[in-house]
Design brief:
heterotetramer; A mainly alpha; B mainly alpha; C mainly alpha; D mainly alpha; A: mainly alpha; C: Helix Hairpins; 0% strand
């Protein structure tokens, strides 16, 4: 039975989603507990899988008992296991943190909200764990569809921006499917490892190059990489609190994982980085993404829109870091996936807490927040320092790897962009701090007796736990890199799958 | 000498952090102050307990975790670090006593927050003093700049907002914009960031990149307030006086200079800088700062701004000492950290006492105050003697070593700069004292209805004034430590 | 001329797919009405389904159902390639699901804005925002 | 904006057409796609799963995990439509239409007026005036049972002839939608309530995932039907065939229920009162 643990990661949330729907119609109170137990079980199994992978090496799980090229198989190495743990942690923290706001926001359809929540988590976990190219497309669609629904339920603008997100997302997913079609024509197989072994033997390289470009453009669209990011700010800023703080930290990061998996596992690093003359173009695109994202973030006057543009900047970090081509850059990108997911979760949870307490999002409503919501704002400060890259927090360490990767690879424009965007981040976040730290200068006393309107406890504890996690991740960044990321990256580069 | 592995440095850093939860939970202000005192004494006791071991030539170290391959989050207590830690932990005791009087005198709001951030700032300062490599120092440097932001903007009014913005801009731009990339480059070149006796990069760098790297570090550590990046210091004077006393005279600015000193001596190393001839260049930068800031100080009417510009000048003495790359030059620089600290903190305490007692901030309104507040102005006089560098006070010893250092490095222009700036110091300090005491009855703006500052605000300046005199006669712990540190650096 | 016809005969299905793809993409970009955009999206997805199906055909092969029972040797050339058909069953279901969600969002927009023209919706939103701010 | 869009679309198509040059010819026997994995399926599927219809064999067994998530995609669409559109607040419509059956007279009852009870005499019709279509109603009543019978045939005969869970399920769903279109939405929701269709949808997928989990409990990998041989005392190959059938039934239930559920929500924009 113990060899079946990997299957629990996907099966348990899926079965839970079904049970929640069936039970939800009967008794509404059952939904939340089932969902939390399912996510907790999935979280535990991801940790067990991680331990097994670090002990016994990669796990190959044959679905329905068929060997890889014939049936679908999972190929779990260090990278998969790490991202799985990340997703499970983010989902678990978020479901516990947003219990009250979800009940407040979707009073009559809470059961279905948790079904969509669980299906989104199943889809995202499935994307990370699968070893089959077409199966990845199906799971991509599950995650996207539940994402469109969760994001579409916000204010008046939410359905328009969600429809826009649907169009862009579908074009992206279909381009990915079209790219895999090219691959299928050239190799005849759908299993990643099998394709990787057939590709070098083929002679017409131009077909493979076109398939790589198609897959990449599709993934860039899903990842909101700079020129194709227009859907992200609207989709995330008009979304309801609980769904934004679930989807924002996960979708873009998982798409980045898919890019890493496709580029390094299927197309092998020497093809992806050297034969395709893509490296300079993508790094320059990342530089433009970082600079213009930061400037656009500076021009926003609403908190969530600013955070959305910061996500676009972070995607620029990770994509640029990966396309530097050397091991330090890729290590930085992977570490930044982990750090940025936690940072974005912390930021969006604070935005959700503030919105639930003051139901306003514009900067001018955030006056005197440090006094009214001290703990939420301390968590916001920790996340802000982490995004800026101040040492004790985890953001510094991934930025360090990206910087040294940039210098090693000779892409000094990427290093300069990183520094400039960190400085703009300082301005961004300390503008919010200034607004919330300094009460309006005239009525200092009048604010005094308003007292503390702190967010409810069941939202505050997970929020503070996330903030604490950011600092713990900072201290254990080195062990995280040596034990998990280094072996993952080296196995990706040597292609010893 | 094999280093002793002991947890003392970590406790020294953490003792003030540990007291923060107690401060927050303290009900009555007296309990809170008592705990702050306890923390201050505890920290000084731990730091002092390490003096004999270090004087015997050994170093204590404690490694917490590894941050990157080849860099650990490690604390190491050596002579130079201990000297700086001794000064700041002793003066924290004095300042916490002073801030009780000051805060109560002006009944400032949210004092608990003030004491907590003060404790955090101090633990960061000691952290910088005891850091074993450039990255640990950078981490504590960042924590210090973030924990002092709420202190600088304590009054939360419009002026505090703009000066806080300027304070953060200079420091964060310097640290993230210049120091971070420079550190990454050094890490890529040398594989580690640990401080090496003869200089980490000795010989592994050609002339031009070394210059760029050096300037990035020197102007990156903007807390050292070297001329182009000094503007945040006068702006930070908007903070309550104990903050500007301890932080902007002793802790924060000295941290900046300490980092520059470490980088010059232990990352680049005297040998390499000497071969490339960058010593005189650094001396020139320091000299420019000394002279220009002294001239500006002459024109400042607000007492605290005048003291601020004088601090900028004095800091560049220390950078000058480091840049001379000679034995007594460096020793003079190190000594000046201690001597200037005692002198300048007395001056800031007196300025605060005047504000508490009379509410007067500008020098032009201080004529004749000496008769009403003899003790404060007496301490002010001794403090200014020490900062000018005249014999009875400690400042003389450090300037004496600096002068010998300039001769050893045969840079006589620097000697001239040293003497000229001492004259300028006298020019902007002594008129204040003269006008306070020796004015005729009619000019005195203070009919004798005001009296001395309250006891808590009076005892600390007198204590530090006496201490700066004692330092002239018994400079022993600092002199020995600085000599030991210099032999370690030059000895290689 | 002769090898041009063989070229056309051998590749015209792929060209058909690409042209359909272009039509779908253009409809999604240029059309103003939301439902027309949704139709364009559907054309785009159907083009890719046709692309996969055209991969599976073999000249002179019958549908992939083994007509005689056990015991006979089975020559792959007799039967079409079953895999793309399986994949495209999934892709059809996915496109239907996306169509459903897109129409649901369009209905929601119509309920709120009483129009399906994108420019009218956007102008209403900007006026709402300006009044709100 | 339009011309720019047209330009880049044309550019993209030209590039793609150029790239199709080195595709294998259409229908060629030795193209890589039809050699590597598909040959294995064609030659071994019959022995390994005892299902002559290769597509069903590959669909439900070799790539069963894919199909599980395919059904989940449909379920997600159902959830999404419900989540986005469903509105419970009973905002009564401004007026209601009632038709007197014998005379064909239509009564318009304003809000708050006394509404005749739905009986032999009166029947409620939609506000978009619905023509008196006896022919369609009767024809539909006649055809629907045979359609449903054919749907069941398609579901259960998926092993030997083209068809299977999806096709059968859709036909099943279509019959009920035909019923809703012929009469009106309210009569169909009375026959199959939204709650039943939602729960049926989940039960269908639960049947599919349940069989997979059952194999898991029996020690084999997820969705490995050969493990069922111990339960139903047959050799593993026949167990696979029965597993495929069980799974096809699950898919059929799920697809038909979701089709109805999506129809209910889309057509009445979530109010489930008046619709197509």
């Amino acid at each position: 039975m113990s060899s079946q643990i990997p299957a629990f990661i996907i099966v348990v949330p899926l079965l839970a989603a079904l049970v929640v729907n069936i039970a939800g119609w009967a008794r509404r109170s059952l939904c939340f507990p089932t969902a939390v137990c399912a996510l907790a079980a999935a979280w535990i199994s991801t940790i067990i899988v991680m331990l097994r992978v670090s002990r016994e090496g990669d796990i190959i799980y044959r679905m329905a008992g068929w060997d890889p090229p014939w049936g679908i198989s999972w190929h779990i190495d260090h990278l998969n296991a790490l991202i799985l743990i990340l997703i499970a942690t983010v989902a678990l923290i978020n479901i516990v943190a947003t219990r009250s706001t979800a009940a407040q926001e979707f009073p009559d359809r809470l059961g279905i909200f948790y079904c969509l929540y669980l299906l989104f988590v199943t889809g995202v976990m499935g994307i990370v764990i699968t070893g089959d190219v077409f199966n990845l497309y199906v799971l991509l669609e599950i995650a996207s569809l539940s994402g469109y629904a969760l994001l579409g339920m916000g204010g008046s603008r939410a359905s328009v921006s969600s429809l826009n997100y649907l169009f862009m997302g579908t074009i992206g997913a279909s381009l990915y499917l079209f790219g895999t079609g090219y691959l299928y024509i050239a190799t005849g197989s759908l299993n990643m490892v099998d394709i990787a072994s057939i590709l070098p033997t083929l002679e017409n390289i131009s077909l493979i190059k076109v398939s790589f470009v198609l897959c990449l453009v599709g993934l860039f669209m899903k990842m909101a990489f700079f020129p194709l990011h227009t859907w992200l700010p609207n989709a995330y800023s008009h979304a309801p609190g609980p769904s934004a703080s679930l989807i924002a930290p996960l979708t873009t990061k998982v798409m980045l994982y898919v890019m890493i998996r496709v580029a390094l596992t299927i197309y092998q690093p020497d093809f992806a980085f050297s034969q395709m003359a893509l490296q300079d173009i993508v790094v320059w695109l990342a530089v433009i993404a970082i600079i213009s994202g930061s400037i656009l973030a500076w021009k926003q006057d609403r908190l969530k829109r600013m955070l959305a543009y910061i996500i676009v900047v972070e995607v620029g970090y990770m994509a640029g870091g990966f396309w530097l081509g050397n091991q330090t850059g890729v290590t930085g990108a992977v570490l930044h996936i982990v750090n940025d997911a936690m940072m974005t979760l912390c930021l969006f949870l604070t935005a959700g807490a503030i919105a639930s307490r003051i139901n306003a999002d514009a900067f001018k409503h955030l006056q005197g927040l440090f006094r009214r919501m001290p703990f939420t704002m301390t968590a916001f400060m920790v996340a802000a320092l982490s995004i800026i890259g101040v040492p004790p927090t985890c953001g510094f360490f991934s930025k360090w790897y990206l910087l040294s990767g940039g210098i090693e690879a000779g892409h000094y424009e990427f290093t300069a962009a990183l520094i400039i965007s960190s400085l703009i981040n300082v301005l961004l976040f300390f503008r919010v701090v200034e607004i919330s730290y300094y009460e309006p200068f005239d009525n200092h006393q009048e604010n005094e007796q308003q007292g503390i309107q702190e967010a409810s406890l069941d939202m505050l504890l997970p929020l503070l736990a996330t903030a604490g996690l950011l600092i713990v991740l900072g201290f254990y960044a080195h062990s995280l890199v040596t034990w998990i990321i280094e072996p993952a990256v080296s196995s990706l580069f040597t292609g010893s799958l | 000498m094999i280093p002793i592995v002991s947890v003392k440095p970590l406790i020294a850093v953490l003792v003030s952090l540990a007291v923060i939860p107690v401060l927050i939970s303290a009900r009555k202000p007296n309990v809170r102050e008592a705990w702050t005192f306890a923390a201050a004494f505890g920290k000084f006791a731990i730091v002092a307990s390490m003096v004999p071991a270090v004087m015997a030539g050994r170093t204590l170290e404690f490694s917490i975790t590894t941050l990157f391959a080849g860099i650990a989050f490690k604390l190491e207590v050596d002579a130079f670090g201990l000297l700086f830690a001794l000064v700041s932990s002793f003066l924290w005791i004095v300042t916490s006593a002073y801030s009780i009087g000051y805060m109560r005198g002006l009944d400032e709001h949210s004092q608990t927050r003030y004491f907590c951030y003060f404790a955090a700032a101090l633990s960061a300062t000691i952290g910088v003093a005891f850091s074993a490599n450039l990255l640990t120092m950078y981490i504590f440097y960042e924590i210090l700049s973030l924990s002092t932001y709420p202190l600088v903007t304590h009054h939360q009014d419009r002026e505090a907002r703009s000066s806080g913005r300027r304070y953060l801009l200079y420091i964060m731009v310097g640290s993230i914009g210049l120091v971070l990339p420079a550190m990454v480059i050094v890490y890529l070149l040398a594989g580690t960031l640990d401080f090496a006796a003869g200089g980490l990069l000795a010989g592994s760098l050609s002339a031009v990149p070394a210059l760029f790297l050096l300037l990035m570090f020197v102007f990156g550590f903007s807390k050292a307030a070297i001329m182009p990046v000094h503007a945040w210091l006068p702006a930070a004077m908007v903070a309550p006086t104990p903050v500007s006393a301890l932080l902007h005279a002793v802790a924060v600015v000295k941290v900046g200079v300490f980092c520059v000193f470490r980088v010059i001596t232990e990352i680049f190393g005297p040998g390499m800088l000497h071969d490339f001839g960058y010593g005189p260049l650094l001396c020139a930068i320091a000299a420019v700062t000394i002279l220009v800031s002294s001239f500006i100080a002459l024109s400042q009417d607000n007492l605290k701004r005048r003291l601020a510009f004088s601090t900028i000048g004095q800091l560049s003495y220390i950078v000058l000492g480091a840049a001379l790359l000679t034995q007594s030059g460096m020793a003079g620089g190190m000594l000046h950290i201690a001597m200037h600290a005692f002198g300048k903190i007395t001056l800031f305490f007196c300025a605060g006492a005047i504000v508490v007692a009379t509410g007067v901030k500008n020098i032009s309104e201080m004529t004749g105050i000496g008769k009403q507040m003899p003790a404060t102005m007496g301490a002010f006089f001794i403090g200014s003697l020490s900062v000018i560098g005249l014999p009875p006070c400690g400042g003389f010893i450090s300037k004496w070593h600096l002068a010998i250092g300039t001769i050893e490095a045969d840079q006589l222009i620097m000697l001239a700069v040293l003497l000229l700036s001492s004259l300028l110091n006298a020019a902007y300090f002594l008129p204040v004292v003269y006008r306070a005491f020796f004015c005729t009855e009619s000019e005195s703006l203070f009919a004798n209805q005001i009296k001395e500052a309250p006891g808590w605000c009076l005892a600390p300046p007198v204590l530090t004034a006496v201490a700066s005199i004692l330092l002239f006669f018994y400079p022993q712990p600092f002199l020995g430590l600085s000599r030991l540190a210099v032999t370690r650096i030059l000895g290689g | 001329m002769e090898e041009l016809t063989t070229l056309v005969m051998a590749k015209y299905n792929y060209w058909g797919v690409v042209i359909l793809l272009g039509i779908g993409l253009y409809a999604m970009i240029a059309k103003n009405n939301l439902v027309k955009k949704i139709i364009g999206m559907n054309i785009f997805q159907t083009a890719i389904i046709l692309f996969y199906i055209s991969i599976s055909t073999k000249y002179g092969a019958s549908i992939p159902i083994i007509h005689h029972g056990h015991g006979h040797t089975i020559h792959p050339a007799d039967y079409m390639n079953p895999l793309p058909h399986v994949l495209m069953l999934t892709a059809i279901v996915v496109s239907v699901a996306t169509l459903g969600v897109a129409l649901a969002l369009a209905v929601r927009i119509y309920n709120h804005h009483d129009t399906l023209e994108e420019d009218e919706v956007l102008s209403q939103l900007t006026t709402d925002e300006s009044t709100q701010a | 904006m339009k011309s720019f869009g047209l330009a880049c679309v044309v550019l993209l198509c030209a590039a793609l057409i150029y790239s199709t040059m080195n595709f294998p010819d259409w229908g060629s026997l030795n193209s890589p796609a039809s050699e590597h994995v598909s040959d294995y399926y064609i030659q071994n599927a019959l022995e390994e799963t005892a299902v002559p219809n290769l597509v069903t064999a590959v669909l439900a067994d070799y790539r069963g995990y894919d199909t599980l998530f395919e059904t989940t995609v449909i379920l997600t669409a159902g959830f999404a439509c419900f989540f986005l559109l469903r509105r419970y607040r009973r905002k009564p419509p401004p007026y209601r239409l009632y038709r007197h059956i014998e005379t064909g007279v239509t009564l318009i009852i304003e809000q708050g007026g006394k509404e005749p009870t739905e009986s032999e005499e009166f029947m409620r019709i939609d506000s978009q005036w619905v023509p008196y279509d006896l022919v369609i109603q009767k024809a539909a009543r006649l055809v629907i049972p045979f359609l449903q019978l054919f749907a069941l045939y398609v579901i259960f005969h998926g092993h030997h002839s083209p068809g299977g869970g999806f096709q059968g399920g859709v036909i099943l769903g279509a019959t009920l939608i035909l019923l809703a279109i012929a009469n009106d939405l309210r009569s169909t929701t009375k026959r199959i309530s939204e709650r039943i269709s939602a729960q049926l949808a989940s039960t269908g997928v639960l049947v599919y995932a349940g069989t997979g989990a059952l194999c898991l409990l029996l020690g084999a990998n997820f969705l490995d039907y050969s493990a069922l041989s111990r339960l139903i005392a047959t050799d593993p190959v026949m167990a696979r065939s029965h597993g495929i059938l069980l799974v096809e039934i699950g898919v059929a239930i799920a697809v038909s229920a979701v089709m109805i559920w999506i129809y209910y929500n889309l057509v009445s924009a979530g109010r489930h009162d008046e619709g197509l």
